[in-house]
């Protein structure tokens, strides 16, 4: 029964050993039977917390733009050992984090054009904080992107003014 539950759970997506142990406990599988099945699945490579952590970091950092701090917290919540999680999170370096933060801010900055700069800054900083970015990096990236957006808008206004002036008789 424990074997079948684990196999079914692993069919949908990879799981950590802790997630499977929690599932077996919820189904009232005796602890010794659960441990035996989990040990065997680990032996044959069906459960690999390190591989799970690496895949999770790749997916969540690229897809959701999460910072290392948020990735570590998610892995801990999934039951991944802190050393294994730290090793997986080390794959994300400072530049990866900065690029991901910038991509997030650029994506959101366009929808904040009508807002004053202070409000846009506060909202963008909050979004980055919820994704695990530290305040220093968040402030620098937000400032950079908003400066670029402001410069682009000023250039657009100059083009419009020029077009209007050149259209005069």
From TrEMBL:
Superkingdom, taxonomy of origin: Bacteria
GO biological process: one example: regulation of DNA repair
Main location: cytoplasm
Compartments reported by the entry: Cytoplasm
Entry-linked HAMAP family: RecX (MF_01114)
Record-stated family: Belongs to the RecX family.
Keywords of the record: Cytoplasm
Segments forming domain RecX first three-helical: 2-40
Protein name: Regulatory protein RecX
A GO CC annotation given for this chain: cytoplasm
Organism: Blastococcus saxobsidens
Gene3D superfamilies: Winged helix-like DNA-binding domain superfamily/Winged helix DNA-binding domain
Described function: Modulates RecA activity.
Domain RecX third three-helical stretches: 98-141
Stretches assigned to the RecX second three-helical domain: 48-88
């Amino acid at each position: 029964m424990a074997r079948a539950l684990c196999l079914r759970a692993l069919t949908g997506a990879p799981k950590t050993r802790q997630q499977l142990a929690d599932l077996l406990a919820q189904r009232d599988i005796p602890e010794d039977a659960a441990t035996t099945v989990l040990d065997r699945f680990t032996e044959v490579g069906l459960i690999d917390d390190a591989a799970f952590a690496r895949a999770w970091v790749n997916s969540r950092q690229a897809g959701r733009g999460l910072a290392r701090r948020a990735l570590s917290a998610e892995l801990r919540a999934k039951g991944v050992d802190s050393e294994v999680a730290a090793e997986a999170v080390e794959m994300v370096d400072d530049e990866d984090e900065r690029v991901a933060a910038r991509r997030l801010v650029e994506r959101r900055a366009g929808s904040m054009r009508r807002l004053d700069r202070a409000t846009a800054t506060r909202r963008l900083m909050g979004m980055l904080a919820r994704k695990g970015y530290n305040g220093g990096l968040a402030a620098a990236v937000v400032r950079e992107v908003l400066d670029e957006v402001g410069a682009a808008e000023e250039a657009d206004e100059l083009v419009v003014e020029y077009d209007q002036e050149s259209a005069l008789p």
